[in-house]
Structure formats: structure tokens, C-alpha cells
Amino acid sequence: MNILSIGGSDPSSGAGIQSDVKTFSNHNVYGFTAVTAITSQNTRKVTSIEPVSTKSLRAQLDSILSDFHIDAIKIGMVYNSQIIKVIHSKLRNIKVPIVVDPIIKSTTGTMLLKKSALRDYKKMIIPLADVITPNKYEAKVLSGTSNTNKSAKKIQAMGAKCVIITGATSSNSQISDFVLEENRKYVISGKKISTRNHGSGCNYSASISASLAKGNTIHYAVKTAKDYVYQSIRNSKNIGKGVNITHKNISNGMRELSDSINHFKQIKNIYKIIPECQTNFVFAKKNPKSVMDVLGVSGRLVKSGKEVVTAGEIVYGGSQHVGTAVIQVNKKFSEIRSGLNIKYDPKIISKAKKSRYTILSYDRTKEPKKSKQKENSSISWGISNSLNAKSPDVIYHKGDIGKEPMILIFGKNPDDVIRKVSKLRPYH
Length: 428
Description:
L-fuculose-1-phosphate Aldolase
């Protein structure tokens, strides 16, 4: 997935295009940039703003749009009417999701959109937006009212399909965003961290852009972005002499799983072994106690034609089924921390036998009624009843009434699992 960020350059990398590229990378998408203005700023103040020439911006956009496939676009700081007019002319016929983050004033108080450009902003930038993400202050500037519901409706009437007013309501422990889609409105709440920071708005809109690029719904994108921003504020760094800079720390485990998921998706004909319930790929911490200690895809690895796409983000607790299976195996064989599920196929079992892998199985038709009635207990029952003295490479079952047959492949780490999958796939 490729996303283009159009916005200002922030040398502190707390906000602007530098921050967007970091967020895109954390969401496992590739980020392109087009600079609208060069700012000189740090954690205390903005000392100068120098907009690029219209010729330069036009050339930047042409160079990206003429060569690369773009899955989504994020528009941040635009500063003046000349910049606005170039962006509008280049993007008005583009058919990919466009997320607009209205950058009007910096965290440190400097105006980043000229008052003289506000009219053109409303006329030319807002109508481009599939999603626009103003905070309460920005929503009031754009709409002329501080009433959240009225403000969102006024901005939507300007042409934005979906309006998200961030931080619409807050308490000591919770902060809520108001979402007005084309046919519904709702509120999404999350935990609040009371600290001044630099970059949370950029993180939020960039995260939404990444989710929409992957084909997720707005509701899902907002929930994911809210969690991402919470984590980035919680891990923010006090590296300057002013406000904290938001930061999302990507663990080695997350990077390792992400790389292996990409490898998995590139295996020839891999779509043929994706089951009806789709696939998940997990990687557990050492000695995991619950699925919240196991990284997995919050949605699934989904078959789309002859490709496999990631529907969701890599998060702890992202997989109930495969995560539970890995935990059960790990209890007896602590070296096993990764696994994925694929479609049951006798050819795969045959290949596993020829490769001298340790293959175990269980019969779901023999599962006790009590276990079947208890939510999420079937996989625990099946795995624990199949284990013996040897660490398993493969565990399978042939299904039951309403239950799809399945193969689970286990390994010490995601790369170990990929090595086994590559060896066992029956379709070359």
C-alpha cells in the first residue's frame, strides 16, 4: 500500500510529513511526500514558515502521481491560497480516499493557515475530503460554531463526506471523538492522557489514511487510530525543552511478524490455502498468559482474488483462535511462540509426513458438550488433548458440524513458521 502525504516539513519530526512517514511505516504502508511549506520549529515554538513555490509543489505532485500507484492521500498544512489552488487542481479528479487534517494553528500557538486563505480552504480543500479530522478549535474556525453536532453538519455541507471532530468531549480519564458519516453519527471514546504533546493530530489522520488505504471501514479506521494515538502519547518523548513529541515504539516482535506476514503474502499461490474463516498469523511474548500477550492481525489475512491482503493491524490480542492455540502449545513447549492457520488439505499433511515433521491431530466430534458450550474453549481442549512428548510442527482436525477443518502450523518464531509453510504448500 502507498500513501501520499501533502503537508509542511517539521524539522523536529514531531508533526508534518516527517511524522506521517513514521506513522505510515508503523502501519506497514509506504509513504510518499509532497512539501507545501518548510517550517523552522521545535518543541517550544515555530520561528519561520516558508511556503514552497507553486511550480515546486506542482512538480512534486506530478513526479509522484505520474509514476506510482497511490492508495490514499493525506492533506495536512497548506498555508496559503496559492498552495490550496495547486492541490485542488491536481487532486479534484483523483479516485482514492483523501483524508484532510486541517492544520490551522500549531501546538505552540503559531498560525499555520493564513486568514486570507480560509475561504479558499473551505471552497477547494474541504470538498476533496472523504474524511476530515478537525479538533474542536479547528472545527469552530471552519464552521463558525462550537456546537459539535452543528459544526460537523456545516463542514459536511461544505463537501466533506465524513467529519470527525477529535476531542469533542473529554473528562479526566476519557476523551471522545464525534463522527458524522454520510448516513450515521456516533461517538468513539478512549483513555485520556493529560499531557501537552506535539504530533497527535498528525498521528491520528495518518493512521486513518493507512486504514482506509487497506480498504477498512471508517468506523474501524477511527477505532484503530484512537488506539494508535493513545499509544503514541503514552510513549511520547521529552527530548526537547518544550512539549513532548509523540512516538510509537514498534517492538522487534511486531516488526518480525510484519516482515513474515509480507513474506507469507508473496508466496506463490498462497491464496489457495486460505480457509473460509481466513488466516491469522501470531507471535507471542515469552511465557504468554493470555491472548493479550500474543501479537496477531486484528482482522485477518484475507483472500482477495488471487492475492492475500491484510485486513486489520498487528496488535496484541489480535487473534483469539490461533493465539489461544500457540499459548496452549507454549505451556508444554516454551520454545514455540508463533503459529498460523491454513485450509485443511490431505496433500499438506502428506508433505509434512515426508518432511518428517511432528504431526498431531484431534477429533472435534469427540469434544465434550461442556467444552463446546463454553466460548473459545474448543481450541484449548483440542490442542491440549493432542499434545504428546514431542514439540508439534503441525496440528490438524477434520472439522465437525458447522466447524471448518483446519491445519495449524507452529514454530519458534514467525520466520520458522514461514519456512515450514513454504515447504508444505501443495500448489506451486
